[in-house]
Design goal:
Elements: H1 2-16, E1 30-35, E2 41-47, E3 56-59, E4 78-81, E5 105-107, E6 184-186, E7 210-212, E8 236-238, E9 248-250, E10 253-256, E11 259-262, E12 269-272, E13 275-277, E14 282-290, E15 297-305, E16 310-312, E17 314-315, E18 318-319, E19 321-323, E20 333-340, E21 343-349, E22 362-370, E23 377-390, E24 395-398, E25 401-407, H2 424-435, H3 444-447, H4 457-468
Parallel strand pairs: 2-4, 4-5, 6-7, 7-8, 13-25
Antiparallel strand pairs: 1-2, 1-3, 9-10, 10-11, 12-14, 14-22, 15-21, 15-23, 16-22, 17-18, 19-22, 20-21, 23-24, 23-25
Length: 470
């Protein structure tokens, strides 16, 4: 009943939209699609120039029908949403790209306003050449049906559902069926409370390596994961520790909703310890892994986003990144590259299959460099796109983690213990350092008064001079 009500309203609105101006006169502005003369580009436009277009043009479909351009879709390789189309308010994207097997590129998704769309059924169905789909700008809060939305997108490798609002959605029927190259799905932010039909949601997603579950997925259809994993090669399931999977465990795998999975991950996290540094200085940043005891990890990949003014320090050997002692042997290689401004991708791997030992602690440290001119304050940084590999060939994807780096005013020369005062304690620390006594808190750069890179009696007297001169 709810869908029929929305359908009636959508049909009425689709007939009246853009038909009149405020004074009641005719308005020729309309939303439509245009196929280029060569049949390869489908462009979505909202203007008053439809009659002037050279290619075939088509009206938008309503929720009860398929689009007019379906008969001319065979050669379409590219779809473009022009800025003008941002003014359009379609009520349906049903089957818009269904069966466009040659489609490999969609541009301008930010210009597609779907705030009034009630059905996205079959929207990308059988788009066999699409490797990625940008869903960031899709407004789904009014969408009631998403069944078969990505069915048989056989080239699709990864899709981000974090922006999906499924509060009103009722159908995920065969939503990802046949997405054989889809390796990772994260349903964490997706609400399943209103989903009445999730049958065959992931049917034959045979390439799925990792499935992250939403807490609201406990009662989905018993056929939702049919075809996911196998006894020989189960999929990795990532769940919240309180999630009740109610599984039938057998050996190294368990069966859930007709799929085969590895034992669930409950408490694996990667995070960085917040730190403090001065402008122009460097600081060591520890990245830690806390993990459960059921998995043995042998590699990782992640993107480190640093705030403006910060960078990873480098020397003649490359970026200053050092693996920790948590490896079963010392043969761990760390490789890093700068992707764009302040974003670094880091990969840790071992050619001799070294593994990470223990359940908590640092896995590597990074030397962070601050610009010489920076304001005091706290800078927000993050680690995301985190993937861990296990010795059984599975991949685990973790949530983004944020950390802070605080910029403080420089410590004065002579402030050897960084307590913001130069006093006799700093003199004694310098003397103890020269004599070889333990100095648990000692900042060399603040004790090296004469800049000789050697702490000696000249530095001790220099600190005394700073105290006496106020």
């Amino acid at each position: 009943m709810r869908f029929l009500l929305f359908l009636t309203l959508a049909l009425l609105s689709s007939q009246s939209s853009w038909s009149q101006t405020d004074d009641g006169t005719s308005n020729s502005v309309e939303a439509y699609a245009m196929l280029s003369p060569d049949g390869q580009t489908l462009t979505f436009i909202c203007d008053s120039k439809r009659e002037e277009q050279e290619g075939n043009t088509y009206s938008l479909n309503n929720p009860a029908s398929s689009p007019e351009w379906n008969n001319d879709k065979a050669s379409i390789t590219k779809v473009v949403f022009t800025p003008s189309f941002s003014e359009a308010r379609p009520t349906s994207t049903r089957s818009w790209f269904e069966g466009m097997t040659m489609l490999s590129n969609i541009e301008g998704m930010e210009n597609l306003n779907t705030s009034e769309v009630i059905t996205m059924s079959y929207m990308f169905c059988n788009c066999q050449s699409l490797k990625s789909i940008d869903l960031e700008f899709l407004d789904t809060h009014n969408t009631l049906q998403m069944n078969n939305m990505f069915q048989y997108c056989t080239a699709l490798e990864r899709i981000d559902l974090s922006h999906f609002d499924t509060t009103n959605n009722s159908s995920f029927f065969r939503m990802f069926q046949g997405c054989a190259n889809l390796h990772y799905l994260d349903f964490t932010s997706v609400t399943f409370n209103s989903i009445s039909d999730s049958r065959y949601l992931l049917y034959d997603c045979t390439g799925l390596d990792t499935l992250t579950l939403s807490p609201s997925m406990e009662n989905i259809s018993n056929t939702a994961c049919t075809g996911v994993g196998s006894k020989e090669s189960p999929c990795m399931m990532v769940i919240h520790k309180d999630f009740n999977i109610g599984t039938d465990t057998s050996g190294d795998y368990f069966k859930w909703k007709s799929g085969f999975f590895y034992t669930s991950v409950t408490n694996t996290t990667i995070f960085a310890e917040s730190t403090t540094m001065e402008p122009g200085a460097t600081a060591l940043l520890s990245v830690l892994l806390n993990n459960d005891t059921t998995k043995i990890y042998n590699g990782y990949q992640m993107d480190i986003h640093l705030a403006e003014g910060l960078s990873i320090a480098s020397d003649d050997n490359g970026y200053c990144i050092q693996p920790s002692e948590r490896y079963s042997n010392k043969d761990m290689t760390l490789a890093a590259t700068k992707l764009e401004n302040n974003i670094y991708r880091l990969i840790g791997y071992s050619l001799s299959n070294a593994t990470i030992t223990g359940t908590e602690g640092p896995i590597f440290t990074i030397k962070i460099q601050a610009d010489s001119i920076m304001d005091e304050g706290t800078l927000s940084c993050s680690i995301n796109n985190i993937t861990l590999s296990t010795t059984n060939g599975a991949s685990i994807h973790l949530e983004e983690m944020e950390f802070n780096i605080s910029i403080t005013e420089p410590f004065a020369m002579g402030d050897v213990n960084h307590d913001r005062e130069v006093d006799v304690n700093d003199v004694m620390l310098a003397v103890n350092f020269i004599l070889g006594y333990p100095t648990p808190v000692f900042f060399f750069e603040n004790a090296d008064i004469d800049g000789s890179n050697i702490i000696g009696i000249a530095d001790v007297m220099g600190i005394v001079g700073i105290i006496l001169n106020g």
